[in-house]
Design goal:
With 332 residues, this protein is of the alpha/beta class. The chain has 16 helices and ten strands. Strand 6, helix 6 and strand 7 form a beta-alpha-beta unit. The N and C termini lie far apart (59 Å). Belongs to the bacterial solute-binding protein SsuA/TauA family.
Length: 332
């Protein structure tokens, strides 16, 4: 091998090494963002799409996702810097602010815009009407949580007093509600997907109505962060919101099957066909927000529902707890 060939080979190897180091360097430059979700749910499909389809990576973000069961635990993790961003019901920001948080919480990007639960009856009902719940046992959600408040709001809307016209059970942990119904507790139950569809497929229950359709648009599940984190990391929040918008577009522009396949890594024990059914049901009632903006009308509807349930500490100004700056930038 002559000197010229050796020299060329050396240069080629050196160039390849530089490229590899550069590539590794670029990968290492991804900013890690710790996100805590209140539960793992197909209801949060756009979030998982943003991860599996690489939308966060495209924005230079490395998402470290953890599931923190319960809104109170999720907010505790956020306040103690265990996570940077929380995905949880926006009512939690009201509770925390009412208690006098030193570092305000800001809702900056909306993920879901309706309640995500369905009314499931033990017996099959051909022509359902809400007054059929009177005199029955209703297995609801945890007191003070958004599912329960939305549920009570809908019952009252249809002339049913949830504390007088039926036997309301709401002291069972979220994780055990479906098990309790399956074991014989209650005539009706309020369930999230995919449990509602699984119960229907197995003959354990029958979906008769949607609380999401009945309660209207509200900021049901929102990404939020401490004011200090947002002030220190404005570019991160904007990149995060941009990735979310890409995912929201993907969810509405792709087939239900494509969305199901994209998020199945987060639901390995659930068949793609069932995931697709759930995705389509949520899309049909527009439960997935089509953009990250939390508008004032939705915010007021949320507080009306909380007030109706007797759970609103005090009315909070929209501009105090909501920051749409980043969502608006992304949409331009």
């Amino acid at each position: 091998m002559n000197k010229w060939v050796k020299s060329s080979l050396f240069v080629a190897i050196l160039s390849l090494a530089v490229l590899l180091v550069t590539a590794c360097g670029e990968k290492e430059e991804l900013q890690k963002v710790k996100v805590g979700e209140v539960t793992r749910s197909i209801f949060y499909a756009p979030q998982y799409v943003a991860i599996t389809q690489g939308f966060f990576e495209e924005e230079g973000l490395d998402i470290e996702l953890s599931t923190v069961a319960g809104g109170d635990k999720t907010m505790t993790a956020l306040l103690s810097d265990g996570i940077d961003i929380a995905l949880v019901g926006s009512e939690t920001s009201i509770y925390v602010t009412a208690q006098g948080a030193n570092d305000p919480i800001k809702n900056f990007a909306q993920l879901t815009q309706t309640d995500g639960t369905f009314l499931v009856s033990r017996e099959k009902i051909e022509d359902f009407s809400w007054d059929m719940l009177k005199g029955t046992t209703f297995l609801g959600q945890r007191k003070g949580g958004m599912p329960q408040m939305a549920g009570e709001f809908v019952l009252k809307k249809h002339g049913i007093d949830p504390h007088a016209d039926l036997e309301l059970i709401q002291n069972i942990d979220f994780a055990n509600i479906s098990t309790a119904f399956a074991s014989g507790t209650g005539d009706f139950v309020q369930l999230f997907e995919p449990t509602a569809s699984v119960f229907e497929a197995e003959g354990k229950g029958h979906i008769v109505a949607s609380f999401g359709t009945e309660s209207g648009h509200l900021p049901y599940t929102v990404f939020m962060a401490k004011d200090s984190f947002m002030n220190d990391n404005p570019e991160t929040i904007e990149k995060f919101t941009r990735a979310l918008k890409k995912a929201q577009d993907f969810v509405y522009e792709s087939s239900a099957e494509e969305v199901a396949k994209a998020i199945q890594p987060f639901f390995e024990e659930t068949e793609v066909e069932l995931i697709a059914t759930v995705v389509e049901r949520y899309r049909e009632q527009e439960s997935y927000a089509k953009d990250p903006i939390l508008d004032e009308e939705e915010w007021n509807n949320l507080q009306d529902i909380m007030e109706e349930a007797g759970e609103l500490p005090k009315r909070m100004d929209y501009n105090e707890l909501v920051d749409t700056t980043f969502a608006e930038k992304v949409l331009k």
